[in-house]
Amino acid sequence: MSKTELFEKGLKVRKEVLGEDYVNKSIAGADEFTRTMAEWSTEFCWGALWTRPGVDRRTRSIVNLAMLGALNRPHELKLHVKGALKNGLTKEEIKEILLQVAVYCGVPAGIDAFRNAREAFNEVDTSS
User: What residue ranges carry the coiled-coil annotation (predicted)?
Assistant: First the structure.
């Protein structure tokens, strides 16, 4: 598969999970400095990884929430909380994942993850 095909495949999945408006704004906002990272993440994260067989999108969302909470990446966590809801996770399931983050990665990481998830829930609720 060519680089262009992988990017297009990734772009499709990225839009389905994160929302077309968000992805279009993200791409339009890329400049000369950030464009390579935006293209690379779309190609490899979304095109090469998220399209692989063997693990469904719901499971990938669970893994991402745990990792992003553990790494304390608030922007990406909020984004992936919204994607997880689209991929079928419930708020209760997300709560359980973030409780596990708190136990295994530390209460401060869990507190921040809960705060960011609540912000994501509120943004989803107000846009509906």
Answer: none
